[in-house]
Amino acid sequence: MKTTKLDKKFDDNQQDILQHFDISNVRLVNEKPKRINIDFPTWMVQSLDKEAKHIGISRQAVIKTWVAERLNSSIR
Questions:
Q1: Is 31 exposed, middle or buried (0-12, 13-18, 19+ CB in 10 A)?
Q2: Is 59 in contact with 52 (CB distance < 8 Å)?
Q3: Most buried residue, 13, 27, 36, 52, by most Cβ within 10 Å?
Q4: End-to-end CA distance of the chain
């Protein structure tokens, strides 16, 4: 389905549009974060910064994304 059609269904309130999404791995975005400290070697920090700049997100977002992907793949 094209996004324009999905947008129209949402805007017109024609039907529940959630049936068009895979919500099996949905997580709460407002979960209270738990702060941890972790030390990385300088070369890892430099590589993370390079990747973050390439993608256009923060270093922390890169780390969170990669850890979440790894955890999700090990659960399945």
A1: exposed
A2: yes
A3: 52
A4: 28
Which pTM was predicted?
0.57
| 52 contact partners, CB below 8 Å, separation of at least 6 | 58, 59, 61, 62
Residue 47 has pLDDT above 70, yes or no: yes
Instruction: Say if residue 58's pLDDT is above 90.
Output: yes
> Tell me, what amino acid is at 6?
L
List the one residue out of 26, 10, 7, 28 whose CA is nearest residue 72. Answer: 26
CA angle 39, 41, 44 (to 5 degrees): 105
User: Rg of the chain's alpha carbons, rounded to an integer?
Assistant: 18
Determine the Cα–Cα distance for residues 44 and 24; give it in Å rounded to an integer. 32
